[in-house]
Amino acid sequence: MTAPAPAAGSTPAAAPISAAPPTGPSPTEVMGWLHTARFLTTAAQLHHLPPIDVPEIAFVGRSNAGKSTCINTLTQQKQLAFASKKPGRTQHINLFALGRQGTTDAVFADLPGYGYAAVARQDKIRWQQVMANYLVSRESLTGIVLLCDPRLGLTELDEALLEVVRPRVEEGLKFLVLLTKADKLTRAEQSKVLSITRLQAGGGEVKLFSALKRQGVEDAGRLLWDWSHPAATPAEPTPDPAQP
Ligand SMILES: Nc1nc2c(ncn2[C@@H]2O[C@H](COP(=O)(O)OP(=O)(O)OP(=O)(O)O)[C@@H](O)[C@H]2O)c(=O)[nH]1
Ligand SMILES: [Mg+2]
User: Is 220 exposed, middle or buried (CB count within 10 Å of its CB: 0-12, 13-18, 19+)?
Assistant: First the structure.
């Protein structure tokens, strides 16, 4: 239904309710909130992780995809998470707490990457089990950011992870595929890989990100803020059942 146009010369009609300006924090407030991140704890085993009663968001993906760098970029801290040129750097689940003035309203989890060839087979299998258990059973897990180097695209291991989390995603677990290192691609390549990955991710959310060029930082940060503060996020307008 379209609103009637105001008569010529009259004062413009009030904006229809559906066009209300978005509420929530400004980009500066979102970035300020991300900057509150601090190290909470580290664990090699799932049962060593403390129970968390706020939304937990996990950063997962192949080794070297840029998970730790992404956390450092979002939180505007150089060395919060340990990033390195050498794949396989993150070997524990590292938790970071976020929230203003001594409060914690969300936790980010930096997970070790998978798919690093030089890791012994036994260790790979052990880690795949820890990760699958984490993704399936971690109660506080509210959202997953799957980081992917767009030059590789979603690999078999990423697809396997998508399969593991599918039941939880169907129950409302939030999911974002972040195509990292976007600075390595031309504009045309970026839009091509974005469409392909959107198809592969079955319509799930996919965004481009570059730590180097700071591309997509505010956009991803806003989404993580929304996931962490569902009560403060305006709900999607529910369709009017009376309308066809
Ligand atoms: N050009 C470019 N390089 C990046 C970007 N993000 C990460 N890198 C580089 O990619 C390499 C791996 O980054 P990490 O953040 O350590 O990757 P990770 O996914 O945490 O790796 P693991 O801990 O081994 O699983 C480093 O050399 C980073 O500098 C980016 O946006 N652009
Ligand atoms: Mg890492």
Answer: buried
> Residue 179 has what pLDDT?
98
User: Which residue ranges have their beta carbon within 6 Å of ligand 1?
Assistant: 61, 63-69, 83-85, 87-90, 112-113, 180-181, 183-184, 210-212
Measure the CA angle with vertex 78, ends 73 and 81; round to 5°: 80
Per residue in 88-145, pLDDT (tens digit) is 666 789 999 999 988 999 999 999 888 876 777 877 787 788 888 999 999 999 999 9
Q: Which of 133, 146, 164 is nearest to 204 (CA)?
A: 146
Interval 185-211 mean pLDDT: 92
What does pTM read for this prediction?
0.86
| Residue 142: count of CB within 10 angstroms of its CB | 21
Pocket test for ligand 1, best of 84, 93, 147, 213 (most atoms within 8 A of CB): 84
Amino acid at 228: S
DSSP type of residue 25: -
Q: Whose C-alpha lies nearest to ligand 1, atom 11?
A: 85
pLDDT 10s digits, 20-31: 455 789 999 999
Cβ(113)–Cβ(70) below 8 Å: no
| Burial class for 110, CB neighbours closer than 10 Å (0-12, 13-18, 19+) | buried
CB of 112 closer than 8 Å to CB of 64: no
Alpha carbon nearest to ligand 1 atom 26, residue:
85
How far away, in angstroms, is 68 Cα from ligand 2 center?
Answer: 4
* Unique residue bearing structure tokens 């929530």: 24
